[in-house]
Amino acid sequence: MIAVVGAGLMGAATAWQLARRGHEVTLVEAYDIGHRHGSSHGSSRIFRRVYADPFYVRLTGQAYEQWRELEDDGSTSLLRTTGGLDMGEDHDLKALADLLGAAGVPHELLGAEAAAERWPYIRITGPVLHHPDAGVVDADETVGTCVRRAIEHGARAVIGTRVTGIDVRGSEKVRLHTDDGREIVADTVVIAAGAWLPELELPVTLPPLTVTQQQVFHFRQRDPSVRWPTLIWDGALHLYGLPSGSDGGPLPAVKVAEHDRGTPATARTRSGVVDPSSRTRVSGFVRDRLPGLEPDPVAEATCLYTTTSDEDFVLDRHGPFVIVSPCSGHGAKFAPLIGAMAADLATGRAEPHPRFRLGRTA
């Protein structure tokens, strides 16, 4: 039996991949499915193929195929194509365009005038890289679909139960002890605990992980009929934007947030209070650069990032444990692919990629 600890995006996707392959799976989640305590909640995450690293460009292509497989299996639409724009004075857009071209990814590199004509609700003053296959993933719906289909494929879900202890005795099975007094016995345990990972007592040496509380803001569209693309801005500020979905309220809105400048935290000690300095910076950016939005947020929230020093993921096997931490603020787009990779590790079908190993030196 394979136990999966954590039913966020990665744990839920892993349980789904394992169960649909016919494996005996128990999924354990400390909170309710779709809870808002971690990193996997909300109606909007960016899917994009623009990376300055060909390794991740290739992975995004594989992830796209897995998203469509999940949608087909779950009879649910999860990834909505909107197109995406990369801009900002710190972006080497020509280099990014060359990488996309080498991978066969559709794209356009536009001058400021042509881009401003196409997207008049954005104040564009420099070149823009347009990627038409970018889009928005509904994280809440994805978690729910993965858990539902895992159960329908035969998995057992233990919800509202926290793992409080892990015993490994020689070559025996792993025993998980929970806060309600039960014991779950497994041959292999997949740990997909998100921001709780650094707090777990595991017989595994983790790479350094930094947990931060991030804040996101939703801004009402002045014209509700406009279909906004996703946005990446790299300059004095490093921000992203995307259509909000239901998180932005009943009227169309766009989610805008800083990728960096999170507040150091832990999963247990986070305040949940939005940093007012971030609100000021993001609202100022919206006022200056996104005239198609009202500059005062209509909704805001916090979430958690778990970040490695090199921003690569952690996806490795150590004895009976598979550690799954696709993190660093860019993992959500890979969720069903990570589920497949973690399932391969749990069942011995594949070796971990060297960049994702626990013992890497970066």
Molecular structure report:
This protein is α+β, with helices and mostly antiparallel strands and about 350 residues long. The protein has 2 domains: about 1-50 and about 140-205 and about 310-355, 3-Layer(bba) Sandwich (FAD/NAD(P)-binding domain), CATH 3.50.50; about 85-135 and about 210-310, D-Amino Acid Oxidase, Chain A, domain 2 (2-Layer Sandwich). The chain has 7 helices and 21 strands. The protein has helices spanning about 10-20, 55-75, 95-100, 110-120, 140-150, 275-290, 335-345; strands at about 1-5, 25-30, 45, 80, 85, 110, 130, 135, 155-160, 165-170, 175-180, 185, 190, 210-220, 230-235, 240-245, 255-260, 265, 300-310, 315-320, 320-325. A hairpin with a 2-residue loop joins β20 (about 315-320) and β21 (about 320-325). α1 (about 10-20) runs parallel beside α5 (about 140-150) and α1 crosses α7.
For the sheet with most strands, the description reads:
9 strands, mixed
Given this structure, which CATH class of the largest domain is correct? Alpha Beta
- Overall mean pLDDT score? 95
Proportion of helical residues: 25-40%
Low-confidence segments: none
Query: What's the domain count?
Result: 2
Determine Rg (CA atoms, Å). Answer: 20 Å
**First CA to last CA: what distance?**
34 Å
Series of H and E elements: EHEEHEEHEHEEHEEEEEEEEEEHEEEH
> Which architecture name of the largest domain does CATH use?
3-Layer(bba) Sandwich
CATH topology of the largest domain: FAD/NAD(P)-binding domain
- CATH homology-level superfamily of the largest domain: FAD/NAD(P)-binding domain
- Counting helices, strands and paired strands, the structural category is alpha+beta
- What is the count of β-strands? 21
